[in-house]
Amino acid sequence: MAARSLHGADPLPIARSLRRVGPLVPAVVLLLLFMAAPIGWAVYDSFTNVALTGVGASSASFVGFANFTRMFADPTFVQSLVLTVVFTVGSGVVGQNILGFGLALGMRGRNRVFRAVLGSVVVAAWVVPEIVAAFIWYAYLNDQGTLNAALSALGLPHPSWLYVYPMLSAIFANIWRGTAFSMLVYSAALSDLPDDVLEAASVDGAGVVQRLWRVTLPLMKRSIMTNLMLVTLQTLSVFTLIFALTGGGPGTASQTLPLYMYQEAFKFYQLGYGAAMTLVLLAIGAIFSLIYVRVLRVEAA
Amino acid sequence: MRSTALPAFTAPRKTVATVITYLVLTVIGLLFLAPLVWLVLASLNGQATLSASVPHPFTLSNFSQVLSGNATLQPLLNGLILSGGSAIVTMIAAALAAYPLSRYQSRFKRPFLYIILFATGLPITAIMVPVYAVFVQLSLLDSMAATTLFLSVTTMPIAIWLMKNFMDGVPIGLEEAAWTDGASAMQALRRIVVPLTLPGAAVVGIFTFINAWGNFFVPFILLTSPDKMPASVTIYQFFSQYGEVAYGPLAAYSIIFTVPVIVLYILVQRTLGGAFNLAGATKG
Question: What totals of helices (H) and strands (E) does chain A contain, helices first?
């Protein structure tokens, strides 16, 4: 700390602390105004019947936990919660995570050109803006789309994917879009693995599956944890992809929590109810975020 | 004996495994490519449908068409203002905040950093309802400036976190050398710290730009005037509202909208040699 006192050559402690705190002000003000204030607002709003139309519009009043009891008695809400879990587990935890790991593992030690081409294709799907990805998949899965043209040419059944299997459609679109992230995380983690450990295991006669299960996976535990947390947080709040692809429909068949929240708050103008849902989504996100912070702290130590 | 027989026994098995791996990886690659192919083919097709087919007639008119109309150029310009503005704001605010966090010790530093790290994980989509309420309350709805500031806040936590790590990588000894050589605080900052952290600031700026450029939900909620909408919202309106969608021009427009993101991504990857810097992406 003695070296740092070079910076603190000011005669006045006020000037010194001003210089230390001053640069933080713009970022902190912006974060307070546009992130902390809305979250505080959501807490307040969720206990009122505030709305843009109807009774709550003219005079919002405190309704206690009414929004929350209404929420858990609302079958559409419960359904949206279940669909959110299905979407997050299906496309994120299972789909992106396992496919990304498989790609990273499979591409290890392959031909360089092959690796570069395959990597670029997978990453391209990730770099494309979300709304464009939704548009691409809307076309791909449409009745007149490429997939059904190919399937019918092969004499295979070709259902109306977006109407008959809306959740499956959204899950596949999101696996396509997000796998690159897991692949990049795992590629980096795999390249950090000590080669001699894997070689030693191989010399000891461990098979491919055993080596993966007993050596590779345990060594990558931290990367897997980190990746799972980040993927979960990203997938939980996906809005644009599903909104543009199926609109939550048909009916409410693919209406995950972010879409239901949007509908209640911005279509039916039930801001209080929407705010209550904001808190549920934030609480789920906060739990995963806290685990993530813990994992990172362990990593830093 | 056994050691010489072993390679002969394992070699064919290994070759088979290698071939299978290549086959599986190729199939996965083709499955990833398939949806993208349509976008490229349709953009070059004079009579594009929803199915991928060889462009007939082959034409570049889709591109010239969307590059000539004001209805398609204005959204791109709006997107540029929103994304460029938020990138600059985030870059400056994060760099300023990161400096004391990297250089000074304080008992508030650790809790502050934990809050920042925690905030990087919060889903922005989730808070759009109360953000809308706050915007209504402050009469900021449909304001380009306020939307720009909000977009910059969506990446602010990760930007501060990244900038702090970048600055930690700049040895404090260099600064001290400048001090002892008689440089003032500002001179040391300008000559040593700023140039050395510029690559980091560029990454943070590009990351914010990409995030804002592709963002659909935020402008969709916070802006109301059609003439203020960025291209992300326009693309949605084009393919969802009109009965008879012109797929060729829309595909061309989507490609024009995507190209800047790809260019910036390659730029970051080239300069820093790793996509992992962008991997903290909080998408949506």
Answer: 19, 0
